[in-house]
Amino acid sequence: MKNILLLTALSVSVASFLVSATTKEEDQYAYIDTPVKEQPSDLLDDDSDGVINARDLCTTTPEGSELDNDGCEYFIDSAQTLGLRILFTNNSYFINPVFKTQISNMASFLDEFPETSIELQGFASKVGQADKNLILSENRANAVRSELLKNGVEENRVTIVGFGDTVLDEKGSDEFSHAMNRKVVATVIGYKGEVKKEWTIFTKIGK
Q1: Are residue 51 and residue 118 in the same domain, yes or no?
Q2: How much is the pLDDT for 190?
């Protein structure tokens, strides 16, 4: 019986010690309120792409396109190439009207791909003096440049270079070879962005 009373008294003493130990001033902690999450005020999704306006950096994404974390569509670059080849008569830089369509098409191409520019390369046949052929090749390139500018192409997007008779496609000395070497040529490559479509259960997978 004495042992029971002794154990009871000891338990009460320990409990009292623990209560007093946990209520000391140095063991008290300041109460911290539960953080409140800031909710964006604009929860609308104007382009219906699943990204709210508050987070959407591209608010006009095409319907069904695959998106990145900022709500912008992915693009696939597909290269398109357009060439220009204009022939001239001997000792002339007059552009035959038959080539005006080529120039017009090139102007439209440059308008469609505003990030591109073009270098017009002028050439001459191996007839006459080399120094005069160099000037002639530059005049031919400048003539084509002028026509492009008339079709709305900006000046800073068109440069010219004359090679004279130093570069010949046709090595012969006949009239056909000379005619093929009196020319202005150019090639432009543009990249048109195609939207990458979002995968759905109806998407076909290549075999």
Answers
A1: no
A2: 87
Mean confidence (pLDDT) of the chain: 79
- The token duo for 44 is 């609308």
Q: Are 173 and 88 within one domain?
A: yes
Contact yes or no for 58/72 (Cβ under 8 A): yes
Nearest CA among 182, 185, 186 for reference residue 124: 182
**Count of C-beta atoms within a 10 Å radius of residue 23:** 9
Q: Is the pLDDT of residue 11 over 80?
A: no
Residue-number span of the structural domain to which 187 is assigned: 75-195
Burial label, 156 (beta-carbon count in 10 A; 0-12, 13-18, 19+): exposed
pLDDT in tens, 168-186: 999 999 999 999 999 999 9
Domain count, the chain: 2
Let me know whether 98 and 62 are in one domain: no
